[in-house]
Amino acid sequence: MKKGISILILVLALAGAGVWYARTRMRHEESGVLQLHGNVDIREVNLGFRVSGRLQEVLRDEGDAVKAGEILARLDDEPYRREVEESRGQVGSSRARLALLEAGNRPQEIAQARAQVREREVTSTNAERVYTRQEQLFQNRTVSIQERDDADASYREAEARLKSAREQLNLLESGFRIEDIAQGKADLARAEAALASAELRVTDTVLKSPAEGVILTRAQEPGAILQAGTTVLTVSLQQPVWVRAYIQETDLGRIHPGMKAEIRTDSNPSKAYTGTIGYISPRAEFTPKNVETTELRTSLVYRLRIVVTNADDGLRQGMPVTARILGP
After folding, report:
1. For residue 313, what are the domain limits?
2. I need a surface site. Which of 9, 25, 88, 294 has the fewest CB within 10 A?
């Protein structure tokens, strides 16, 4: 008897559920409103330094609200500041070297070279006279061949020294070669690039928040030696708020980017949020288990994004929501 009553109750319950489902589906189809299920998208960022070093201070803790550009942590920047000073010295040296190459030789050096040319011109002229006189005397059999040859050698030596002095003067007056100046410019550019890199490393010892959000995790404490990229803080981004929802292929033609949506949560179903469809995935995927019922988890659906326009603290990341597509 009891078994029969239990079966009767079960049958009535199933019949009632079927009627409720049919009526709900009928109202849904009649209204023409498409209802989707999803979650508030989880958007967070792991923050770390681009350079390695010793963590000097962490200015925020878990649960703290932060603003875009706010300083959150610092590394000890002393080693990087010393690199900056060294690079600045190298830039100064390269700039001075380039200025020397572009300016050419000092006027005093050129004046000294000209004086040497005049001195050797006099010496060469005198050696020429001696040689001419000795040649005449040799023709008259007055001097020996050796004396004539000595005078000739002195004259040739004086001419060679004069030529060398003139070439040295031309070299000083012409300045440095174009290739030397180009090399100097390249050295200066390389030094300036090294200085810019050193200054950037100093800037990278300061960790700033990329956007407005809340600190979720504080992973490191002051004094820790960090490698570049090590996570120090995890920030949950608050704006913009996105809802990740899913739609079946049969309903895909009923939506398009720009359509309005009404979003409600299970925790406060009386409060409605507004949003706009901003993205529809071109690729099908299986329904996530945290979105649909057991029967629909194996269905192929398309993911879409709804951008919430009036989000507040009532929408928290990961929260399940229901979205009703209202139309254009």
Report:
1. 32-42+238-327
2. 294
